[in-house]
Amino acid sequence: MKKIRLLSFTITLLLISLPLLLRGQDKDFRRIKWERKAVAPGLMWLSAQTSINDSLPQNINVLIADISRRELEIEYSSRKNTIVSQQASSSGALAAVNAGFFNMQSNGSVTYIRVDGEITDPDTAQIWNKKLNMTGSVLVDTAGNVYIMRAMGNWWYDSHQEFEDVLVTGPLLLLDKKKVLLPATSLASDRHPRTAIGTDRKGRVYLITVDGRAKEARGMTLPELTGLMRALKIRDGVNLDGGGSTTMWISGKPFSGVVNMPSDNRKFDHEGERPVASIIIIR
């Protein structure tokens, strides 16, 4: 009986303390002092080395693109996974981040993906098992507008050809400024390097990388990443592939354009890029 009461007390304490902890993190994110640099007209780069909870170091980079002046596209290398810097530079991009989840052994996307109105990898794009974490999607229409929405069935994307680029990813984090219920998975609850995309009410697009797996950068849980997005006033947001894939690239910058600290080499430097199947670019 004592064990039951103790368990009940512990659960009650967690239910009380967790919202307070998350609100405290949101305040931490709002206090971030960003270094701001204009990459080009309509493209701003924010960076910060900061901490949350006064003890967890973070290294964060954010690109903010005005889509009325810039174009966002999904690039896909279905036959051979390729590092972000190489894919981005060969496409003539201004900036880029890694995008969707992919097969590290046999290459290619592991979710629905359409680029320039075509499915270039029909086996993967059409026949994929919807996973618990894949609850969101990124869509770019023929006018260049960017949308983030819940993941739909393949038939829905096939019947909406007004979207030239489509990527199923996740988990979905924010929808109309409201937090989306996250799956009870380690992808959501553990701290990892993160890549994410969001849009605000003005139609601007935010590309975010959070470094991790180093003493200088611990990475974030998905609730923490959601808190960061809310602090940036993002309206709709979704998680992209992270971990060792997390990379941000800006044309003309040192270290072959890699501005974050990719962790695939287990070092806190610019050299740890992982070959990936897809990237999101800004032109």
Quick overview of this protein structure:
The protein is an alpha+beta fold and 283 residues long.
Chart the SSEs and their pairings:
Blueprint: H1 2-30, E1 35-40, E2 43-52, E3 56-65, E4 72-76, H2 84-90, E5 95-98, E6 113-114, H3 122-126, E7 136-141, E8 146-150, H4 154-159, E9 163-169, E10 172-175, E11 178-179, H5 186-189, E12 194-199, E13 205-210, H6 222-231, E14 236-239, E15 248-250, E16 278-282
Antiparallel strand pairs: 1-2, 2-3, 3-13, 4-16, 5-15, 5-16, 6-9, 7-8, 7-9, 10-11, 10-14, 12-13, 12-14
Helix pairs in contact: 1-6
Descriptors:
single chain, 283 residues, alpha+beta, eight-stranded antiparallel beta sheet, four-stranded antiparallel beta sheet
